[in-house]
């Protein structure tokens, strides 16, 4: 069986390489047409996609997935409309391929340009969320890359139904169907084979929980755009506006708990707490959030004693850790110790404090007076995202079409020789 899976990976890889060659010079109009066609197909086939999603939800319930994880998997007409809007938004973006990133002349007479070029073949390994099938397919295509998608076993049917729509868009635009390939099996051996497929895949993007990302980082022989846990912090500074803070904290945690931009830790300045009391904690508890804390905050009715691993933990559920800190520097120290370099938000009206927070933390996304739930490529104007990269090489933060390009140098002379 392993041999059959490896043969399948080789077959998929060869097709992807051939498609990437053609995509590298595909016109912006053809890519646009393929994405618009895919968007129309998703909406036209929405009932079939929702039927497929029911099969996946039944599978997820039988596996005992948490409510938050089931929410990540669930599709409805509103979420399908979001997929359609995302496809259209990516289609309408400027083509990132061929952009002149820089150009200059040398005393030797050479004219040099640095020009954006596709990466080649991108492998995306993801869990649960079937919308990634459309987002990753669209962004890779826009950037001139072929993509090999390996969705989670939970989203097997939903991803296949959405993938069929992506193929329809490609066919209508006269583009190779191998531009967007979906692994047609739940066999986990395919994950290992993708991680080792250095002959066929140029970069791997993992999108999922700590277990998946850890596996990819340990075993990959292909370069990886790291997407670590979303251990996102919100810090309520002593100069925070109370009403703004209440809105942002509640939204950061409760809008959708199963996304990587969900706040997992609330830090409250002692002076804010002295002035306003436990209102931020009380709001969360009223909303049904379990607040795990220590010390003074345990006096707030309904709070729970934090365990040794609750700070620096990605709950992806209606749970948050909370702690009192003495000023912005103590908040920064806590985030440096427990954060995952994903997204942090400071709530303050003090410009100097906000600037200190921004300068002294190095997470991929830093916010002021805004919900961490905005940590999303669509909200950044990218149409969609393939993930949020928390590493420091090449792509960082929301990975959109521009981040899925590399570059090459075009050098022009006039019979120019080197002395």
Please tell me about this protein's structure:
- By secondary structure, the protein is of the alpha/beta class.
- The chain folds into two domains: 2-225 and 399-412, 3-Layer(aba) Sandwich (Aldehyde Dehydrogenase, Chain A, domain 1), CATH 3.40.605; 232-374, Aldehyde Dehydrogenase, Chain A, domain 2.
- Helix content is 42%, strand content 19%.
- It has helices spanning 2-23, 28-44, 46-63, 67-73, 77-92, 131-142, 156-172, 189-195, 210-219, 242-254, 270-276, 279-286, 328-338, 351-360, and strands at residues 100-105, 111-118, 121-126, 146-150, 180-182, 203-207, 232-236, 263-269, 290-293, 304-305, 319-325, 343-347, 365-368, 388-389, 397-398, 405-412.
- It has a seven-stranded parallel beta sheet with strand order 10-9-11-8-7-12-13, sandwiched between helices. Strands 5-4-3-6 form a four-stranded parallel beta sheet, with helices on both faces. A three-stranded antiparallel beta sheet has the order 1-2-16, with no helix packed on it.
- Strand 14 and strand 15 form a beta hairpin.
- Helix 1 (2-23) packs across helix 8 (189-195), helix 5 runs parallel beside helix 6 and helix 6 packs parallel to helix 7 (156-172).
- The protein is globular.
- The chain starts with a helix and ends in a 7-residue tail after the last strand.
């Amino acid at each position: 069986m392993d041999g059959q899976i490896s043969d399948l990976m080789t077959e998929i890889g060869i097709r992807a390489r051939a498609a990437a060659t053609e995509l590298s010079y595909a016109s912006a109009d053809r890519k646009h047409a393929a994405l618009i066609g895919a968007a129309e197909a998703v909406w036209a086939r929405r009932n079939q996609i929702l039927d497929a999603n029911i099969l996946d939800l039944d599978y997820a319930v039988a596996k005992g997935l948490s409510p938050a994880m089931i929410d990540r998997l669930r599709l409805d007409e509103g979420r399908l409309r979001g997929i359609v809007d995302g496809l259209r938004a990516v289609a309408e973006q400027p083509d990132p391929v061929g952009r002149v990133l820089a150009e200059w002349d040398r005393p030797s007479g050479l004219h040099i340009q640095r020009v954006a070029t596709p990466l080649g073949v991108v492998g995306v390994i993801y869990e649960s969320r079937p919308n990634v099938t459309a987002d990753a397919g669209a962004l890779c295509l826009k950037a001139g890359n072929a993509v090999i998608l390996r969705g989670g076993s939970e989203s097997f049917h939903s991803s296949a139904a959405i993938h069929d729509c992506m193929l329809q868009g490609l066919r209508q635009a006269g583009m190779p169907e191998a531009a967007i390939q979906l692994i047609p099996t739940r066999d986990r051996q395919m994950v290992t084979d993708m991680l080792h497929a250095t002959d066929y895949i140029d970069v791997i993007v993992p999108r999922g929980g700590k277990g998946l990302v850890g596996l990819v980082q340990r075993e990959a022989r292909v370069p990886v755009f790291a997407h670590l846990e979303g251990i996102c912090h919100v810090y309520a500074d002593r100069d925070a506006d109370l009403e703004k803070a209440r809105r942002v904290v509640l939204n950061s945690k409760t809008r959708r708990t199963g996304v990587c931009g969900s706040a997992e830790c609330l830090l409250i300045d002692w002076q804010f707490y002295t002035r306003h009391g436990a209102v931020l904690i009380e709001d969360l508890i009223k909303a049904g959030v379990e607040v795990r804390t220590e010390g003074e905050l345990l006096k707030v009715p309904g709070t729970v004693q934090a365990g040794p691993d609750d700070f620096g933990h990605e709950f992806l559920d209606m749970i948050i850790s909370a702690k009192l800190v003495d000023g912005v520097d103590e908040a920064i120290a806590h985030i440096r110790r427990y954060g995952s370099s994903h997204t942090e938000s400071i709530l303050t009206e003090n410009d100097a404090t906000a600037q200190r927070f921004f300068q002294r933390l190095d997470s991929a996304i830093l916010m002021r007076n805004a919900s961490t739930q905005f940590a999303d490529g669509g909200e950044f104007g990218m149409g969609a995202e393939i993930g949020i990269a928390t590493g420091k090489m090449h792509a960082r933060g929301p990975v959109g079409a521009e981040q899925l390009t590399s570059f090459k140098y075009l050098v022009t002379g006039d019979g120019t020789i080197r002395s």
